[in-house]
Amino acid sequence: MEKLPFRSGRRGTHNGQNENGQHENGHGQRGRGRGRLQGDRVREQEVRRRAQSQEHSQRDADRQRGGARGGARGGGRGGHRGGGAERLRFGGGRNEQPGGAERQVMRAGAEGTGARRGGHNGDRREGRDGTDPSPRKLGYKTLEDLSKQEPSVVAITLSSNPGFRALLGETPMRPDLVQLICLVVSKAFTSRTDRGTLQHLANIIKESKFLSITLLHYVGGMMSDSNQTRRAQFPQHLEYITAILLEVLSIFPASSVNTVNMLVTLLQASINTLRASGVDFLPKVEEKMETLTGLIAHLQEKSREGTLRTDKDTYGLLTNVDDNEGEEQEDFRNIPLYPTPEEFHQNHKPFLRQNLTSRRYTNTHLYLDTHFRLLREDFVRPLREGIQQLLQDQMAMGRNDNPLKKKRFDDIRVYFSTYLVVPKCTHTGLAYIVQFDVQPLKFVRWQNSKRLLFGSLVCLSYDNFESFLFATVSDRDPKYLEKGQVQITFTEESRVKLARIQKNQLFLMVETTAYFEAYRYVLEGLKEQTEDDLPFQRYIVECSTDVLPPAYLRRRDVYDLSDVAKPEHKNSIRPFNSLDVDAWPDMEELGLDESQMKAFQLALTKELAIIQGPPGTGKTYVGLKIAQALLTNKDLWNNTNSAPMLVVCYTNHALDQFLEGIHKFLKNGIVRVGGRSNSEILKQFNLRQLTHSQHFKRTLPTHLRTAYNQIYRQLCDEERAIKSQSLKLECSLKGVMRETFLQRFMLERHWMNLNSPPMEDGFEIKKKPNLMMEWLGLGSTPFQQRESETANGNEEEAMEEEEDLIEIEEEAELIQAERMIEDGWTIGPRAGRDDKKKRNMEEDVRKVEELMLAMNLDNVDTRAEQNEKVWEVQKHQRKKMKQKVRHELGLSSDMTDQQEENVFDVWSLNLKDRWRLYRLWVSRYRIEVRTKALESEEAYQNAVDRMADVKRQENLHVLREATVIGMTTTGAAKFRKALQEVRPCLVIVEEAAEVLEAHTITTLSRACQHLILIGDHQQLRPSATVFELAKNFNLEMSMFERLVNMELPFVRLNYQHRMRPDIARLLTPHIYSALENHPSVFEYENIKGLNTNLFFLEHNHLEEEIKDGKSHQNTHEAKFVVALCQYLLLQEYKPEQITILTTYTGQLHCLRKQMPASVFSGVKVHVVDKYQGEENDIILLSLVRSNPQGKVGFLNIPNRVCVALSRAKKGLYCIGNSGILSTVKLWSNIFHTLREKEQVGRALTLCCQNHPNRQIKASKADDFNDAPEGGCTQPCEFRLDCGHVCTRACHPYDPDHKEFNCTKKCEKILCNEGHKCTLTCHEICPKKCPVKVEKIIPQCQHTQMVPCHQDPGTFICGEPCMKLLPCGHRCDSVCGRSCSTRCIVTVTLKLRCGHNQQGPCFYKTSTEQPECKVPCKHQLKCGHDCHGTCSKCYQGRYHAPCPQRCERLLICSHKCTEPCTRDCPPCRKPCENCCVHSKCKRECGQSCAPCIEPCNWQCPHQSCSKLCHEPCDRPPCTEPCRKTLDCGHPCIGLCGDKCPTKCRFCDHDDVLEIFFGTEDEPDARFIQLEDCGHIFESTAMDQWMSEVNQGPEEQQVAIKLKECPRCKTPIRKNLRYGSHVNRSLAEIEMVKKKINGRESDIVEQRKILKNQWVENQKICQIYIPKEDNEIQAKLEKTYLTASDLWILENKIDFLIRVAKLLKVRNKKMLFTDGYKFRQGVNQFMSWLNNTSQKFTDQQVFDLQRELQRLNLLAELNVRCHIADTKDQMRKMQSEVQEIRHALEMPGQFTDQDQLNVKEALKSLDEKFPATGLGISEEERKMIVSAMRMPPGHWHKCPNGHVYVITECGGANQRAKCPDCKASIGGENHTLDSGNRVATEMDGSQHSAWSEANNLLNFDPHDF
């Protein structure tokens, strides 16, 4: 994999920078980089954004609008987003603006994401009305007040207040204001908790004039200042300035080093001058100056080496180290948290020390160092060794993923073909959904798998771990994991690296098994822990056994325990001196036993108390007593400052239990911080709930509210921008996208081709419901056909419906619940809207899906669109379609760009290649969307970091007011910084023996005075990831256990209150030396149905290993335990009383598979480790391990055995292989104890409660069949109320049979026929008799089985219908239903085209016709045979386009990709012409603008004086190159040429390979062609370039670029041959101009076409409005070639003629004739507007012939209209029919057809003159012209004789007709009866006397 280049040098001005290296936006103003991205970062952005120079402008409320944000929002943030050295692959020739569909989806996304956000749905900032919102500058008084606040308050206020940035931009500035600013800023930088805020603040300062101008003036002015008062203050001011500079330089080393260097130089000079004049400086200033100088020198050295990292890379400051040897000399605080590349690739052996468990540590630094290194190695080692193994296996297997996919790795989990799908906005920052190949993980059960749990660390690499990215899993949904999707959040450093990597990069993702988040918090805490601040060093480090009382008790030790005492003793207990042992009350008064009393006293009187609580001894009870005593005497330990008590527990369950106990005596003042809580009581005390309360809002400081609101607004803006893009990204993989969204990412010809699908029938074009679905083979018929073809293929087995099983709390969920910490982030406006936001999000997604997706995989049953014939997809077909699409979308094999270029007809591709091409289009779409989202992603993350700082302050505000803070250990690690500020002086750690020592350390603050550890190190211990570290380095030992081993005072509780004595015997003395039974445990009743309360069932059935992970299962044990559980439930035990425990998670799910919810709902099933602290009446324990090797796994660990055997109160039943367990001493002792009372054996004895003498020996699950209902096999014999006897076997439950349902047959009679009820006894009998009997159906006389109660007349007869359809075939329906209307019997059809074809019978009588599939084979005008069919070619009327590829070599050296064409159009590929200065960005066929920069061909011997595009005026240099290659050998090239990359010695074979024959000469010099990289001997290559012709192809194309002799790549970039190239390019440009046409000719032709269209625009706007808009748009296009104009000219000509025909159709045709005529015109228009219409000779010929047919048809229809007005249609019917038949015949309308029709029309005119006047048409025109009467003056008498009325045209007098004497004329402008207007004379419809009437005689469009 090629690594991304990284340069740190400055760029020249030609790269879009000015001389200062700063970017300028589109209006010439300098655009500032956002956040931390400056200087070198800009250069890195160019690499990662594929050379697109995009500037960033600040988006805070106070920043300037550089060029109106660099143009519109879509124009990018720097004003020239589209610029840069290279364009995206799919730009250029395609439509560069979002299409209609794209805009639609943008709107859909914006509607959902913006409009609902409380007033933020408009523009992204205030002041969008064109004004520049200038923020008000911070004043002197405000700053002065701020300087008195806490550092964190100062930091947040400065970073979020726009007025501070405005103040820093002010020049000049008063010295006192400069001094105050330095004071305030330096104070802000002392804040320890606000890293994101400090980064933002440092960026504001770095970018300001204050740093670059004001401070320089101020520091320089110090030397000349004579004011002694000010001079005395300078040392303090300089300390502030150096502190600020150190912070800025540490955070932004790359972009601030130059400015800081200038300041430091000036500072040093000022210090020297002031010191010489007697001013004293503090040592701190000197130290900081030395540090600054050293750091600047180091950074400058790195810059010179080109290795200076960017601002976002973690940069370790240089530190002084001890002179110890080896790795030990490195301070652990300098070791990075994350593993480095060196650790993966080298044999890395980290330096480690053992955790000292038997002796003290020598010092605190050594103690912290030991735990840091051990803890870091615990999470790094699995990743390191796993990746090393992976790399070794890759080398062995040869980079082939397939074998690796099947391999299991011990330390890591590997995920292949991982890529980023979509960014997600979360409250912790930006996350990404990633997709990985789920195929190798089909066996994984994600619900329980420990894979990809929340907080797990993943490492992504694309270059074999030469570089990598780190991320943590931030959300996990098993439903999505099954599809291969998970949400991850990248680390800060990795986010920067990710931005440089190309958007569609595939990664290898590796997951380590360690929970990284917990490690990270603790490791960071250890790094920050100073030796002086660690409390209790006397005990923790030095292990002193002399434990002192808490410091507060040494001042005053009076305790009042009246509230802790039993109710009856409350009034008798008085305050006493706690340090006086004899003054304490009696233990009975306090309700404690002896050992509990000792523990109570120890906890209250020693500053470090350790209490061990074996199972059931009441350690939580004692802990709550201690907490109550401390809280009721709070004034003892909390009298100076308000410090809370901190309670830390290992699990959420234990935390809930403890805090609920505290809540009983403390109703307010509790704050719970942690993961999931199941307690309703504690819900109100959750940190998130508290920060959302009204009280909190009222008490919150103003500066936090202000900062929150400002940052929140910015978050909403950025989230809206990201969401609009991520919605589209998400949808692009959810199904099949509509073609309109992919149009811009297709080649133009592919888009046109896609929109011209093969036609379905020859007579009418039917638009497919969705082109993309049809093209991908997902349409109705194609998919059904493929299903029938592949019916015998790889059919997936139908999944059996699985019975609902019990819900087991999955281990994965339990682990995640402990990991996830609710930190109260989402407060304020956001918190109350979570549910609404989620609903809105779902609605937005749904809208975008509807717009974008033709097929949605999440809702595949709903078709995107359906045609009139709704296609019903069967269930199995839907499932297969879904699987097919999901499979194809998951593949990563896209078509390459070159393969795409070679595709001519997308419809001719096979299905596999169609999907590859589709994935290429989608990939381009996704890359564009991802690029658009990048800027907003970065701004969002920056705002989230700042918001997190604000939230930390808000949380602190709550925590400081608390009395008790409860946290899990994970929560305490995460909130360690808050705890350092809250400073709890009293800490109680519950389950302390389960917590790693490092975790305990980080919970302690310097203020802690009292630490109480409660736990039991003989139960579960802390768990380490690396076994070797646990065992050999004692990492698994808790602080609790270590201090007990070091003999610090502790108390063990001795009285257990849980287990019956038989069970307690298993723990004492085998695990605990002494454990007394409380009297209450002797009173338990015996377990029903069994003869013993404790039993160990022995067996030797072998275990099985689980495929994923290291777990095991034992099916025999699982079946037995489930059978025993069911047996106990039948004894009337409640499910809640029984718990099944197992030692392995694999067994957990083996059990679940056999436990249907209907039987076992309520029974708890857990692994032992997750059940510590819990108890139940009956425990069934499956130990699983049973193998030939005798391995017992962790069953040999006493701690785990202790937990497993101590959970039961009344009954404990174990099953396991005693043979292998006996090899463990502990188990051997336990079995000895069990055998004393015969509580171990091969079979468990079951006892029937109803028949005590009947017993069953159960050794396997099947044995419980002898007690089928929990009793025995005897029948029940109980008589029921219905009279029947109970049918069950003996059952102990429901003895009175109140719940029993009799299942015998009902004996009741239902009807007069004597039919009995068909139901069972307990069911309600039906009211109507349902028994079926034979009855005769009256309508058809058939005999049918009809229900007894039903009238046969209403019954539908099911006999086959015997009737014959009109066609003669039998009906295929049933007798009782209507006959089918469509006969589907296959017959031979005679089609209208004259061909015969097989098809369904109903087509014979239908107006529809099937598609004729007879091949056309007509010879086209181009000479090729037509490849269409009869239907596709419309029976020869309009032939399918010729698919033959042109393949001619164009002038530009590309091949013509157009279909068969006479004249090749200009090439549409991106132009490849370039020079050293620039690159042509036009299409290849367009003329290139010549480069007029000076020629760069220079060498020491010669130089060129011409311009770049001109032939050079110097010869090539023949002197050898004097340079030396990287390998140390001399260059083999020539002076002035680029040095070849090959060496004569190192690459001997490649260089001396004979091609021209001169390569092996000793003094041979070589030239490397830049275009292809091939190397040639210089003299031979010079000769080759000077030759006129290169081969036979040259004879065909006289003008072309010279080509590489080896690979035929055109030579464009070589300076040596620049003259040859420039001459060829000049000739090529001349040819291009000829092809494209002279600009003046094109302008003239465009003008002619515009005028032609304007002349006819009125008629076109009315009759063809859509085409009118299209033509106008095309005429306005900026670039048109001669070819484009040729196409336009043809189209305009045809459209004008069509518009005129439609005008005739509207005016002069009968309705029926007009309707049919319009259909014919529509058909013609569809051909004319076809996307593949190029007006080839064949297409023009076909269109002309069809237009001639339409013209003649129009002429005929007009004659018919005239004849109809004169009632002549009946007379001429036969002649009209004959002509119409000739015009509508299938096939092409030939010249002979045209001649015949014209003759027929002429004959028709002669028989029936068109006018009806008895004169010819010419005579009529002459008469009308001679009379010169306007329309409306010609009339006719009742007998049809024509006369004219002069003057106004109105009848005002009567007369007689000269021909027939009938009355003509009239009076008062009214014609006599029978007289009417003579329309046939001039076409008028009304008399002309009225102006209104007269207007109707004219076409209004003619005015």
Give your account of this protein's structure.
This protein is an alpha/beta fold. The protein has 64 helices and 41 strands. A seven-stranded parallel β-sheet has the order 11-14-10-15-16-9-17, with helices on both faces. Strands 1-2-5-4-3-6 form a six-stranded antiparallel β-barrel, surrounded by five helices. The longest helix is centred in the middle third of the chain and has 50 residues, at 911-960. The protein is globular, with a radius of gyration of 46 Å. The relative contact order is 0.05.
Q: Level of helix content?
A: 25-40%
Largest sheet: 7 strands, parallel
What class do helices, strands and sheet pairing give? alpha/beta
Coarse shape: globular
- Mean pLDDT figure: 80
CA radius of gyration is 46 Å
- Spatial strand order of the main sheet: 11-14-10-15-16-9-17
Q: Ends: how far apart?
A: 73 Å
Counting H and I runs of at least 4 residues, what is the number of helices? 64
Number of strands: 41
Strand content: 5-15%
- Low-confidence segments, given as residue ranges, are 1-132, 312-329, 760-767, 781-803, 824-833, 860-873, 1589-1597
Summarize the structure.
This protein is α/β, with parallel strands linked by helices and 1903 residues long. Residues 1-132, 312-329, 760-767, 781-803, 824-833, 860-873 and 1589-1597 have low confidence and may be disordered.
SSE layout:
Elements: H1 40-48, H2 67-70, H3 100-114, H4 140-146, H5 151-160, H6 162-168, H7 175-188, H8 195-206, H9 209-222, H10 228-251, H11 253-276, H12 283-305, H13 341-345, H14 364-397, H15 401-406, E1 412-426, E2 429-435, E3 456-461, E4 469-475, H16 478-481, E5 485-490, H17 492-500, E6 507-515, H18 516-528, H19 537-540, H20 551-555, E7 558-559, E8 576-577, H21 587-590, H22 594-605, E9 608-612, H23 619-632, H24 634-637, E10 645-649, H25 652-663, E11 670-673, H26 687-691, H27 694-699, H28 702-732, E12 735-737, H29 739-742, H30 748-754, H31 771-775, H32 780-789, H33 811-819, H34 834-852, E13 853-856, H35 875-890, H36 897-901, H37 911-960, E14 964-968, H38 969-974, H39 976-982, E15 986-989, H40 997-1003, E16 1010-1015, H41 1027-1032, H42 1039-1045, E17 1051-1052, E18 1055-1056, H43 1061-1064, E19 1076-1077, E20 1094-1098, E21 1104-1105, E22 1112-1113, H44 1115-1130, E23 1138-1142, H45 1145-1152, H46 1157-1160, E24 1164-1167, E25 1176-1182, H47 1198-1205, E26 1208-1216, H48 1218-1221, H49 1225-1236, E27 1240-1241, E28 1244-1247, E29 1255-1258, E30 1332-1336, E31 1343-1347, ...
Parallel strand pairs: 9-16, 9-17, 10-14, 10-15, 11-14, 15-16, 18-19, 20-26, 20-27, 23-24, 23-25, 25-26
Antiparallel strand pairs: 1-2, 1-6, 2-5, 3-4, 3-6, 4-5, 7-8, 12-13, 21-22, 28-29, 30-31, 32-33, 34-35, 36-37, 36-41, 38-39, 39-40
Helix pairs in contact: 3-28, 3-34, 4-7, 5-7, 5-8, 5-28, 7-10, 8-10, 8-37, 9-11, 10-11, 10-12, 11-12, 14-18, 18-40, 22-23, 23-25, 28-34, 28-37, 54-57, 55-56, 55-57, 57-58, 57-59, 58-59, 59-60, 59-61, 60-61
